[in-house]
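Pasting as-is:
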Amino acid sequence: MTTRITDVRVFDGEQLLPDRKDVTFDATGIIAIDPAGTNHGRETVTDIDGSGATLLPGLMDAHIHLHSSDTLQQLASFGVTTGLDMATWPAGKLASLRDIAGREGLADLRSPGLPAIGPAGNHARFVPEEAVVTNPDQAARFVDACNAEGADYIKIVAEAPGDGGPDQPTLTALVDAAHEHGKKVIAHAATHGAFAMALDAGADIFTHIPLGPPLDADTVKRMADNDAVAVPTLTLMEGIASSHGNAQAFAGSLRSVTALQQEGVTVLAGTDANTEPGAPTQVAHGTSLHHELELLVDAGLTPTDALRAATSRTADVFDLPDRGRIRPGLRSDLLLVDGDPTASIAATGNIRAVYIAGVPVHRSAAE
């Protein structure tokens, strides 16, 4: 089926295009982006009136946790067409989800499989024992095992010294082994001490942002100098702070993101969406990313920067060149919303339609 959305504003992943367009696409990808009113005489095109609306690339959540196919359906219902998973096991479960992801109304996914954890940190309470890496000699074997199971990147859990995570030599060995395989490393770093250790190890992407005092200027500068990427998961941090009645701690997290943005650090939109009973706070899949975008704007990003953080920037960081932008030849994962989210970021929640690989998503769960 070929679809054409007519007379629509287009945010192409980088900017709002200056004039309204007609965007034509099917399951093979985006076919054309023409001036509004152009008619190429395609006999089988289904036209959809896009007046008053904005067409965006499908959104990407740079930190989710998978649970079942329902996770992928829920993401898709809210216009999140790609989810970057941060830990799923066992391998058979992940393989079955990979088989169905990205088609038939389900969001696409990428995953590391198991994360590398320490022997006594918080994650050791619920992550399988084979994820524990206790010394540098085990690092290469862990990374080899992840690669054998199809890991898209390597996830490590950094804890502050003394909190039971991998020690500094082990973290560094894990990063080095991943880089030898050409894999990026995502570091769970929720405290100032963990941030420092992950920076020393050379991690590429830092997920979470500490509550409480903002990151110091030296840490922010090191993030910029290292070309490190931040996925602050503000929705999660807000939930944790709220559950403890500590709004001031969350205000510190917002200031950290402000400082990172001002220093030129790439900031991505990720939520830590999960339904784990033992999680610090549960975060709803799909809908939470729209709140995350609002929080990023609260932290000082422009609405356009926030949209880039959930589209083109995430595609670039996670090496997904076929998506995150609206261009001929790219994957037809698309989100149609009423209003102009480059003027008011809340407009991303005014969803009119979602397409995955050119096929409209049935949104009954969201509605």
